Automatic annotation (TrEMBL), chain B:
This is ABC-type dipeptide transporter. GO terms for molecular function: ATP binding; ATP hydrolysis activity. The lineage of its organism: Bacteria, Pseudomonadati, Pseudomonadota, Gammaproteobacteria, Vibrionales. The keyword Cell membrane applies. It is a peripheral membrane protein. Its EC number is 7.4.2.9.
Length: 297, 328
């Protein structure tokens, strides 16, 4: 009814408060209790990671402070490991390692996936698309852990070999998702309309089509973050991951000897930290997905 | 009129699409001219090549699978077929613009109206963001959007269908094109809004002195707002002439059929609405002769053998061997 009035040009009713899709998603998210709780847990982890990164906390993770295999005390909250290092400080400092890997891999892989996915999606049916699909299929054929080992050897024990290996594997999932979405979007009239108004192809892809996939990208990024952290733990456990630093994976590897001897501190501290982070982040990711889903807004 | 140089002249345009089942000629040897400031309607049923014709003029035939295999499109004395992408971009939006059928999907849902309009204006004109914005607001005002200063910062989903189509028109006209291609611009709108949008277009056309090609199957809209009509069937032009002549004295049996199938509500006793019997032939298996022959009630042996040429006097041409019901 109000539309009809506006069409007459007689009324100038314009909603005072402007609601974009993002503000709506944001409002929906802050109403979601599970989402907010998981976000605050993730925020706490992030704070710890930043403080460790700035050198303000847990700098003594590498020092031999006390006797080995002590139980929890007032000074060493989670006790000490076999070498007499403070498990609490080690577990805290590992958060920094995890975030470092998670963030770099998630950001780089998502951006790569978005760029490749949108380009191949737009050019679907041409040789450009064929080429990239072929490349992705080839990369998919290589077993992931073999790839990491290969990168580690090729980069001569570079501490970032693991990061690079993950980045080069993880972008493909995002690329496929974005490609599918872009194929759907490019057949919509606004793409044709943009082209018919003289917008160059690269602008159509990156300014008109890619922003339409931002809800996918954001969720993909959170999922990749978790995947990267879990992979880092597994790789470190296997000895392919973090070098010259500490990670939950290395702590679990240490603990594998200790647990059989009846010392559980190292194991519980590292796997507990990992478990809470992954759980919280997965719940956050779910809530984010719900909030951003345009069909539910 | 014929002494004037045409703004657009399409000559012998042939577009083919490669499909899995074979090559399809979506349009076959199409010829027509558009004079400056004139409104030409292209009418015909779905799949007759209306939209492909307009996309060819824009240089936006999806390729692959589509390809312009023959013919030329001359716009302001310049050949458009084979123009490179960079050159063509300067024509699109700037000299030739297009508006689309679905206002709901023709605007990008995640970008504000301002972003989309300013982008287009700045692509074709060397102006600052502020100037482009001012121009965009002016255009929104011109197409009858109330409080354009507030509306410009909204997202498409906050506007009604009619307003979105107006925004589309504003965007298409923001660089002052000489030719506007309107691909069924009112089909998706309510009847009341249809009339408003059409009136707006006619008014703007006079104001800006631009030519319009109106692609439609709505003959009512054609009668109201166009000067000349091009009737297409199966990728070919079968009749072309001034709107009065076409409506008063249609020569091709298909055009006659189309006009007869418009319901007349004023008659007290509403007779059964006549339809054109049969279906459009498959573009993959076209008949040898006239493409309408199988559905025509005035068909004779020659129609099945030879394709009739578009002929007749300069202003009213028809592609039929027996345009008046008698064998020529």
């Amino acid at each position: 009814m109000s539309d009809a009035i506006m069409e007459q040009g007689s009324s100038t009713v314009v909603p005072a408060k402007r609601e974009s899709l993002w503000t709506k998603a944001f409002q929906k998210f802050i109403r979601d209790k599970v989402g907010m709780i998981s976000l605050s847990v993730v925020g706490l982890y992030l704070l710890i990671a930043i403080l460790a990164w700035l050198g303000l906390i847990a700098q003594g993770w590498d020092e031999l402070l006390a006797d080995g295999q002590m139980g929890p005390t007032a000074e060493y909250w989670f006790g000490t490991n076999i070498n007499g290092q403070d498990i609490f400080q080690r577990a805290i400092y590992s958060t920094k390692t995890a975030f470092e890997v998670g963030l770099t891999v998630a950001v780089v892989a998502t951006i790569t996936g978005a760029l490749v996915g949108s380009t191949t999606g737009y050019f679907s049916g041409t040789w450009i698309d064929e080429l990239f699909l072929w490349l992705m299929n080839c990369l998919d054929c290589i077993p992931y852990y073999l790839m990491v080992a290969a990168f580690a050897v090729a980069l001569a024990d570079n501490p970032y070999a693991m990061h690079i290996a993950m980045m080069s594997c993880f972008w493909m999932g995002t690329a496929r998702l974005v490609r599918g979405e872009v194929i759907k979007l490019k057949n919509m009239e606004f793409t044709e309309a943009a082209r018919s108004l003289g917008v160059p192809v690269y602008r159509v892809i990156f300014k008109h089509l890619l922003p339409n996939t931002s809800h996918i990208l954001l969720v993909e990024m959170t999922l990749l973050f978790i995947t990267a952290i879990k992979s880092e733990v597994i790789l470190s456990f296997l000895g392919l991951g973090v070098k010259d630093s500490i990670s939950w994976g290395l702590m679990i590897a240490e603990a594998s000897g200790e647990v059989t001897a009846g010392y559980f501190c190292n194991f519980f501290a590292s796997s507990g930290m990992l478990f809470v982070l992954v759980l919280a982040f997965n719940m956050f990711s779910d809530s984010l997905q719900d909030a951003l889903d345009p069909r539910k807004i | 009129m014929s002494e004037q140089t045409p703004l657009l002249s399409v000559e012998n345009l042939t577009v083919e699409f490669k499909t899995d089942k074979g090559t399809v000629r979506a349009i076959n040897g199409v010829n027509f001219k558009v004079m400056p400031g004139e409104t030409v309607a292209i009418v015909g049923e779905s799949g007759c090549g209306k939209s492909v014709s307009s996309l060819s003029i824009m240089g936006l035939v999806p390729s692959p699978p589509g390809k312009i295999v023959d013919g030329s499109i001359i716009f302001k004395g310049r050949e458009l077929v084979g123009l490179n992408e960079k050159e063509y971009r300067k024509v699109r939006g700037n000299e030739i613009s297009m508006i689309f059928q679905e206002p709901m999907t023709a605007l990008n849902p995640v970008l504000r109206i301002s972003t989309q309009m300013v982008d287009v204006i700045r692509l074709h004109n060397d102006v600052s963001k502020k100037q482009a914005r001012a121009r965009a607001i002016e255009m929104l005002d011109t197409v009858g959007i109330p409080s354009p200063k507030q509306r410009i910062d909204q997202y498409p989903h906050e506007l009604s269908g009619g307003m979105r189509q107006r925004v589309m028109i504003a965007m298409a006209l923001s660089c002052g094109p000489d030719l506007l291609l309107a691909d069924e611009p009112t089909t998706a709108l309510d009847v009341t809004i249809q009339a408003q949008v059409m009136d707006e277009m006619v008014r703007l056309q006079k104001e800006l002195n631009m030519a319009v090609i109106l692609v439609t199957h709505d003959l009512g809209v054609v009668a109201e707002s166009c000067q000349r009509v091009v009737v297409m069937y199966c990728g070919q032009i079968i009749e072309e002439g001034p709107v009065e002549a076409i409506f008063a004295n249609p020569k091709h049996p298909y055009t006659k059929g189309l006009l007869e199938s418009i319901p007349v509500v004023r008659d007290k006793k509403v007779p059964r609405l006549p339809t054109i019997k049969g279906v459009v032939p498959d573009l993959l298996h076209l008949p040898n002769g006239c493409r309408f022959a199988d559905r025509c009630d005035k068909v004779h042996s020659r129609c099945h053998e030879v394709v009739p040429e578009l002929s007749g006097c300069e202003i009213h041409r028809v592609a039929c061997f027996s345009p008046n019901g008698d064998v020529q």
